[in-house]
Amino acid sequence: MMIRTSTASRIMELFRFGFTGAVGMLIDKFLIRTILIPAVIFKLGKFSLWPQKMQSEN
């Protein structure tokens, strides 16, 4: 009985770890990278790291 409880506990712990990782990856993929980062770059304006045209020497 003790071995089964210990094994079930370990499996549930692994499930929670995997589920939390998967949810974190989905949040990163669909919210952070697609909405938050472009919004922050837009708000930074000229201070963002977008490539800009080179100034001519004239």
UniProtKB/TrEMBL annotation:
Signal peptide limits: none
InterPro entries in the record: MMPL_dom (IPR004869)
UniProt cross-references to Pfam families, sorted A to Z: MMPL
Gene Ontology terms: cellular component: membrane
Keyword set, alphabetical order: Membrane, Transmembrane, Transmembrane helix
Membrane topology: Multi-pass membrane protein
Location in the cell: Membrane
Domain Membrane transport protein MMPL span(s) in chain numbering: 14-54
Stretches that traverse the bilayer: 21-42
Coiled coil: none
Protein name per UniProt: Membrane transport protein MMPL domain-containing protein
